[in-house]
Write a structure and sequence with these properties.
The chain is an alpha/beta fold. About 35% of the residues lie in helices and about 20% in strands. A hairpin with a 2-residue loop joins strand 2 and strand 3.
Amino acid sequence: MSNKHTYVLGINAYDHDVSACLLRDGEIAVAINKERITRKKHDTGFYQKVVDYCLAAEGISLDDVDLVVRNCYVLPVEDLEPRLVSQYVPEVMDEEERKQAKNNPLYLSNSNKVVTVSHHLAHAYSAFATCPFDEGVVMVVDGVGNYSSDIAEPGQLTENVNPLARESESYYRFDGSRIETLKKVWLKPVRGFLSDEFYFMPGLGALYSRVSIYIFAHWNKCGEVMGLAPYGRPDAIKSLLEIKSDEVDVPEWGVEFDKPFWPEQERDWEASPSMQHWKDVAWRVQDDAETLLLKRATWLRETTGAKNLCMAGGVALNCVANGRIVREAGFDKVWIQPAAGDDGIAIGCAYYGYLALLKKPRSSVMTHAFLGAPYSDEDARAAANTWLVRLQTVNTPSKNICRDTARLLSEGHVFAWFQGRSEFGPRALGNRSILADPRKAEMKDKLNKRVKHRQAFRPFAPVVLAERANEIFEGDEESPFMLLVKRVRPQWRDRIPAIVHVDGTARVQTVRQDQNERLYGLLKEFDAITGVPVLLNTSLNVKGEPIVETPADALACFLGTGIDYLALHDMLIAKNRFHRIVSPLRNAYSEMSSVVQRGLTVEVRD
């Protein structure tokens, strides 16, 4: 295929959430997170699988790509890769990927077509280059970025900064394709135990991750911390951080923090006697986060006079804080990049190459996050026709999948909903979703226990017709990427209790017909039956698993959980009586996934 387009490939490399994004003439052609392919949550390592996925989806080869831009927050890729030649670090690159790398032209590349960009600048480009504003400001807050000594781009305010200090917060102003750094907050080097220095660094993202480890024994359960926070007692725990003008001080934790969750000792998290303490700590860190972020956003507006704010970085996934910034910081418009975490770094890398290096003008707005490769109806039918699937299911073609699904949802059935291209980022926005009727309070417990296999406290999000959202939720702002928490209006709380959190709020997704025509049609049909233009929407996966990517993934999840029906394109799939016989033979959903995947290799087609 001749290269008639300008292609730029962006890569988030090696550490968590490895991802790739391919631009075609300044538009995102395809983007994917490695975990969707490998089925390993937040997968690390070599980037060949995500690069191959993007190139195959576009039908091109690496030779057709004009520029490759990478980032790894640990070290610049050109410094990290030579170390991997002499060091065996399996969590960064295992033996299989080491063999792949030897034959990959991007590995140890000296080509002038392969470059590196720093972490926070990539986050900034992922936000402003895709936003709907011509000018405004950018707020980047995350756990940890690059060392100041590894930041080579001019104007990044690294002068007289400790070379071992790392990025924590960065603030920018943009106009068209130009961007200017206004302020950076650095994480000073600290003492640590073995390799855990990050968790003791004086920054908001690092602190939130430390609380996540303390309560859930995992650094990346920040969403669960946010969901647990409303159950805590206000001010039962003293503030965990202090704001000192340009710096954040995180005092040392004392011996009062003596109740960490140890999975080896406490198998049942929900039965722990430490539960109230964990709730109180979650409340405190969430309140501290909101205070800091609102203060920073207000400073940014007052300093610049900007009317428009863009946000990226992992902390921008804190939907509760985002809601307060939208309501209280004073900006006219706030836009949050849907893959705000490190998977979205791939978008920023690609746009840095396109705008800053190739000197192309901005020409694109990210109106949706459906950036995965397309799967044809033939792919879907092939997956549904494997012997193990046919043994357990009844497959009925639907002439109106939206109407048929709406009727069954209104009767209380839980649906897996697989349509179109997969969403890029952590939220299922209606193409890889589990959907249910929000009118019954018991639906929340049913889904948490029978389907998602997760803690009972965790809430579910609503998806709502955009033109009806203000009737049900407070605030006029649309939320197409499910990144804003809003209060549910009192008159609706008893009508849709399954999506109302304990504090009367919900993490809202709004949808318009031009954003997702099929999901919009489903909501219209459900509204026609029930008078409620809202559905419960959660990701099509189970606890600990990535969101499904392929039709085979969707069928494996459907057969391995308590989901009642699967809408796979225009096929309505139900379980038959043989499923009750076969199901006990499966020890885990992951085992079923591998069986189904062996039964079918789905080709990615245009």
